[in-house]
Amino acid sequence: MTGKQCLFSSLLLVLTVATMAPSGLRASGSGDAKDQNTSDSGTARPVSSALQGTWSGAFFSKHSASGFTLTVVITPDSRGHLVGDSTLSSNCLKGTKLQVTAKGSNVVLAGSDEEGDSLTIHGILDSTGSLMQGTYVLNGSASGRCETDNGTGNLAKR
Fold first, then answer.
1. Torsion, CA 35, CA 107, CA 74, CA 15, rounded to 10
2. I want to staple 105 with a disulfide (CB 3.0 to 4.6 A). Which of 15, 27, 125, 131 is the partner?
3. By CB neighbour count within 10 A (0-12 exposed, 13-18 middle, 19+ buried), where does 31 fall?
4. What is the pLDDT of residues 112-147, one digit of tens each?
5. Can you say how many angstroms the Cα of residue 100 is from the centroid of all Cα atoms in its chain?
6. Cβ neighbours of residue 125 under 8 Å, at least 6 residues apart?
7. How many helices (H) and strands (E) does the chain have?
8. Which of 100, 101, 123, 97 is nearest to 111 (CA)?
9. What sign does the dihedral 114-78-24-42 (CA atoms) show?
């Protein structure tokens, strides 16, 4: 992959996150930990605590019969920001490290693999904090494995 392809993929990921993220979300490295620890209810546990753990589910394309399954293990990194190690059953994208941001019940998981293929998921946690319904944008064109795709799916906490 050329430097221009990598730069284009990186810019596409940034633009996708910037234009699709609900207002008020911060990149995981730009705010303090309290921004990730918000919830809609004073009685619910903080979102960052609710997000930690193993999540898995299926996503379905709006454009083709193929979809993918995803498992992501969300933990805090050394700076206390949430990250997810993912494994996918996709021909378009390899497993990747995802940055996890949250504001209220809105959650964004975003990252790219070594080839520059990217995945962004915008999810909403249910009131129990155990189900995330979301939409995704997958760009596998950096490696040439796939083109841009989008769709919907769910992740359930195990």
1. -90
2. 125
3. middle
4. 988 889 999 999 999 999 999 999 999 988 777 788
5. 6
6. 47, 50, 51, 105, 107, 131, 132
7. 2, 8
8. 97
9. positive
Tens of pLDDT, residues 14-28: 333 333 433 333 333
Output the CATH code of domain 3-157. Answer: 2.40.128.120
Q: Which range (19-23, 51-55, 86-90) has the least confidence?
A: 19-23
* Residue 63: both structure tokens together: 């454009």
Residue 101, φ and ψ in degrees, nearest 5:
-125, 150
The structure tokens 């795709």 sit at 149
Length of the chain: 158
Q: Can you give the residue ranges of every domain in the chain?
A: 3-157
Give the other-Cβ count within 10 Å of 70's Cβ. 25
Closest by CA to 146, choosing from 59, 66, 85, is 66
